[in-house]
Amino acid sequence: MQELHDAPLAPLTTFRLGGPATRLITATTDEEVIAAVREADDSGAPLLLIGGGSNLVIGDKGFDGTALRIATRGFSLDGTRLELAAGEVWTDAVGRTVEAGLAGIECLAGIPGSAGATPIQNVGAYGQEVSSTITEVIAYDRRARETVTIPNAECAFSYRHSRFKADPGRHVVLRVRFELEDAQGLSAPVKYAETARALGVEPGDRVSLAVARETVLKLRSGKGMVLDPEDHDTWSAGSFFTNPVLTHEEFAAFHARVKELLGADAEPPAYAAGDGHTKTSAAWLIDKAGFTKGYGTGPARISTKHTLALTNRGGATTEDLLALAREVVAGVREAFGITLVNEPVTVGVSL
């Protein structure tokens, strides 16, 4: 294990923001991860887990405790069964499954971060979520002080949520297992309308795996959602806010407010979210509330490519970012009566 003191954390995040950690440990094996976690738990020291850093907003004062960077490696395919170490770079792993001719996660290409983070957020995009292919999560249970195997049915997956996110201090993901599909080089059925349009097919159709992956990468790149150190639109955490999921009554009130504010012909995005709920678009809300692409005058601004991404234009502080986020939240709430919820994990700060 590598150990550093007063270690900068900003370079370990896609925002490139945040102060130092009192101590930074980099673990490259499951055994090192468990040892570092146990040591922190035994001493009572605060512990911050870092994977790809694509979902972290760290305060300018940094982290007074031990930051553990999980840099484990491991990619194993057995037929259609895939096992990834938590530290594997997610988008690279997706590329390898496409090369192997296996479907199920091809539309999750280009998502920054590590494999171990995917079950925590139930990562999803363009009609796919990892919950549909994950079979088991191998994790260290800090409460029981043992390694456990948690089947999909016990992960409590929902939209951008899981049992791991609900109880963030309990489990440390070590490995994730997936069951993919051998569809003779074809993708899973295309579910997302935007993807289908870009591919020139109908929802439910299958296309070449490679074509599906490349199309998604192009769509993401056009929105600044594929990491590029030269492009400040990608100095972000991707989507900063989750799409609101509303009850029938909440959506009815929201719908009426949209008509009142934008006119009788205005129709907000609406997607069935099960059990009497409707999901709408956070990006649409932000835009219609007046926060358009490129909004802002300081070093933290809305992306010029996508209203859902808040970005560091270089030289920003975390407080600059949070001030922008709070302005957006307040503006959307005032306009539409909906309070946006941040998707990234905040460390030492809050909205």
Write the layout of secondary structure elements.
Layout (H helix, E strand, L loop, with lengths): L1 E7 L11 E8 L2 H14 L3 E4 L5 E3 L4 E8 L4 E4 L2 E5 L4 H10 L18 H4 L2 E2 L2 E2 L4 E8 L4 E6 L11 H4 L4 E9 L13 H7 L9 H14 L22 E3 H15 L8 E2 L4 E3 L2 H7 L11 E3 L7 E3 L5 H19 L8 E3 L4
Parallel strand pairs: 2-5, 3-5, 4-18
Antiparallel strand pairs: 1-2, 6-7, 7-12, 8-9, 10-11, 10-12, 13-15, 14-15, 16-17
- The largest sheet has its strands arranged as 6-7-12-10-11
The number of helical runs is: 9
The percent range for strand residues is: 15-25%
Major pleated sheet: 5 strands, antiparallel
- Integer average pLDDT: 97
Gyration radius, in Å:
20 Å
N- and C-termini, Cα separation: 34 Å
Structural class: alpha+beta
Contiguous runs where pLDDT drops below 50 for at least 5 residues: none
Q: Give, in order, the helices and strands.
A: EEHEEEEEHHEEEEHEHHEHEEHEEHE
* Basic shape: globular
